[in-house]
Specification:
This protein is 40% helix and 23% strand. By secondary structure, the chain is an alpha/beta fold. It folds into two domains: 199 residues, Bordetella uptake gene, domain 1 (D-Maltodextrin-Binding Protein, domain 2, 3-Layer(aba) Sandwich), CATH 3.40.190.150; 103 residues, 3-Layer(aba) Sandwich (D-Maltodextrin-Binding Protein, domain 2). Strand 7, helix 6 and strand 8 form a beta-alpha-beta unit. The longest helix has 21 residues. It is globular. The N terminus is likely disordered.
């Protein structure tokens, strides 16, 4: 199983709530280039405070000063790892050239787990932007001091170790299942508590409602830096924080990444699709974007066009295989 996840990681590495009256495109010179949208509608299929919301707000933080957009209106619809918001985006934004959605690996797993009739295959891929390692954390006053302590507790009885994270079937849930399987227990024994967004999950961890938490490192970064949470390990190939070991360094042969990107609604024309692609490419090329990636601890995982479409197909297949192997699908 663990070697399968390493192969999966290698595969991943390679391979506005209301209609807007303004014109969707504004092809004029902005502060640093062409303004791609007079007003952009950004749909986040998750509650505020999580990784998708963070990426959407980061795009606004960089794109508006650069003149790529005039304004951005956000709508957050959380629930079930995007399986609640996704059908709304498909139905309400169909054919709209000024609409984009932030989504990623969590949605792939969650829609498979929930057997959703609407999946990521029903939207228009624009670009993969980032990849991020997960962090495994405990509150600062926890008696679990390191990742070995967590693994010993999971081996003794997974049901006694409640772990909070994102929606069922997402990357956080998959990672917990893999950890449990690695100590010879059944992933179905997991005591996993799913939250609709990063804010509620953090509150539950800090409040002691769960014993540990799993999410993207950036969602826990401030709590780790302030000393309110203790990071036990991260799930990437290399360290994000020099003081926090990776799972592989800790003797656990698991490597998992959480990619995120941009999607347009179905039914858009060729001009709209080309405009979205240019926007993503121009955003990615900005020095401010590269600085932001470093600040947030996000890996630059930019990919677009046919390569991104093929990546999505293969990622869906690989995710389904993993979910079946650990008993989540």
């Amino acid at each position: 199983m663990n070697s399968h996840l390493v192969r999966r990681r290698q595969l991943l590495a390679g391979a506005a709530a209301l209609p807007l009256a303004a014109a969707p495109f504004a092809h004029q010179a902005g502060a640093q280039g062409t303004q791609r949208y007079a007003a952009l509608s950004m749909f986040i299929p998750a509650a505020p405070g999580g990784g998708w919301d963070g990426l959407g707000r980061a795009i606004e933080q960089v794109a508006r000063p650069a003149g790529l957009v005039g304004s951005i209106q956000f709508e957050n619809v959380g629930g079930a790892g995007g399986a609640v918001g996704l059908p709304r985006f498909v139905a309400q934004r169909r054919g709209r050239p000024e609409a984009l959605m932030v989504a990623g690996a969590v949605m792939v797993g969650a829609t498979l787990t929930n057997k959703s009739p609407v999946t990521i295959k029903d939207v228009t891929p624009v670009a993969r932007l980032t990849d991020e390692s997960s962090a495994i954390v405990v509150p600062a006053n926890s008696d679990i001091q390191d990742v070995k302590g967590l693994m010993d507790a999971l081996k003794a009885g997974p049901g006694a170790v409640s772990v909070g994270g994102g929606s069922a079937g997402g990357i956080d849930h998959i990672l917990l299942g893999l950890l449990i399987k690695s100590v010879g227990r059944n992933a179905r024994e997991a005591s996993y508590v799913a939250f609709a967004g990063g804010g509620p999950a953090q509150a539950a961890i800090l409040g002691g409602q769960v014993k540990a938490g799993i999410s993207g490192y950036s969602e826990f970064a401030e709590q780790i830096k302030s000393g309110r949470m203790r990071a036990l390990a991260t799930s990437g190939e290399t360290r994000i924080d020099p003081n926090v070991p990776t799972l592989k360094e800790s003797g656990i042969d698991i490597v998992v990444g959480n990619w995120r990107g941009l999607f347009a609604p179905p039914g858009i024309n060729a001009e709209a699709r080309a405009n979205h692609a240019r926007f993503a490419a121009e955003l990615h090329a900005l020095p401010a974007w590269k600085e932001l990636l470093q600040t947030r601890g996000w890996e630059d995982a930019y990919m677009e066009g046919p390569a991104f479409e093929e990546f999505l197909r293969r990622d869906s297949e690989a995710t389904l295989t993993v979910l079946k192997e650990i008993g989540l699908a």
